[in-house]
Design goal:
237 residues; 11 helices; elongated
Length: 237
Amino acid sequence: MAGRRPHYVFSVALLILAFIREVNKFKPFGKPVLLKLLNLSRYFLSPSLKEFTLKEIHEQCFCFEAVELLEACYKHNTRYFFKEVFQRLAERSLSTLTINEVERIRISTYIGLVMVRERITEHIHCIVTVPPPVKHHSNCTDIVSCEFDFKAVWWNVMGRLLLDAHYSMFWIPEDAVKEFEKSSFGRMGRGCVMTMMDFIRLKQFGLDVVRERISATANDIASHITEIDGGDESEDL
């Protein structure tokens, strides 16, 4: 392997970046520029330029496709934003991924996503099929009818909101509860309805448990990415 590129090249690159910043009045760099800088950091084996660029990309994370960022993690040997991008991808339908995109994010990542999605689906099914225990208000006069009607509404309305293949509200419990609250609850008293809404908002469908599981899977996959300062100098720009 040849020696490192001359340091003056990186110094010139920093001067150019400073000039662009001044001209653009501190506007963020665009996606094409950042991707080019990341390639430059690899070509010149410059950890400083790589760190600078990764921070810039992280600040504009949602301007990039999740697949694009995961591919960059593997190509440039970094775990910098792997976990949060993996979570973004885990929250969308995997049927939208093309074969080319699966190859770009590596098969190990795709298998991890499939496993996580399967667990998430099981979790949602459990939520829908097993309604939360009814918390009755002090003025409830018919506990049996109250519970019966709540379960009926839960299975029909919440089931539709969470199991919708095109737009599941599982990831946005606040919106799901708002929609659920618009339902007709039959013989349930208003006090019991409001008590249950507060209870559901508090539990948030166990989202914290799901996100912990996604995070653990992402960490396990990312642990196989060897973080290095440089890269293959022969890479074409």
